[in-house]
Amino acid sequence: MEEYMSVARVSSGYPMLTTTSFIGMGKIVTKEAFDWVISDPKIVTASAVIARLMDDITSHKFEQKRGHVDSGVECYMKQYGASEEEAYDKFQKQIVDAWKDINEEFLRPTAVSMPLLMRVLNLSRVMDVIYTGEDGYTHVGKVMKNNVASLLIHPIA
Q: Which is an annotated GO molecular function term of this record (predicted)?
């Protein structure tokens, strides 16, 4: 499971998404900011954990039906002899802990400014919206379509 997570955090693309989200933010993004984000800071790691585990939970059954490679849920179940429900519970606890890590990072001084931390937080919030209740990334359902429409088509005046 530890090996899976070390690979899955990076291969999820989340750290790269965080890094590329800094582009276009102007002078606030310095070389030091890029050095910071590629140094695997706690807040970026926590955000990647949230994205990876929420995806693993919501897409697990669908991925297994289509014969996809083992997910984090399968790795956890095999390594610890756990049930599917126990794996989901463990992942939920890790997600809660990752949110606590993000909150903690906002309470102490960091090497980067608040707008950059907010970018990381907002990407985590997006992952929470996409993966809460359904896999809104793989199966863009009514909920995600309504979310996008309320943001872009029917914004609050």
A: magnesium ion binding
Q: List helix spans (H) across 70-113.
A: 72-80, 84-107
Return contacts of 55-62, CB within 8 angstroms, 24+ apart.
55/12, 55/127, 55/131, 55/135, 55/137, 56/8, 56/91, 57/88, 57/91, 57/92, 57/131, 58/131, 58/133, 58/134, 58/135, 59/135, 59/138, 60/84, 62/135, 62/138, 62/139
Amino acid 23 reads: I
Asked whether 119 and 25 are in contact (CB, 8 A), the reply is yes
pLDDT at residue 82 is higher than 70: yes
The answer to whether 9 and 52 have CB atoms below 8 angstroms apart is yes
Strand (E) or helix (H) holding 3: helix 2-11
> pTM (2 decimals)?
0.80
How does pLDDT run across 104-119, given as a tens digit for each residue?
Answer: 999 987 889 999 999 9
Q: In the structure encoding, which two tokens stand for residue 43, read together?
A: 């807040």
Residue 150 amino acid letter? S
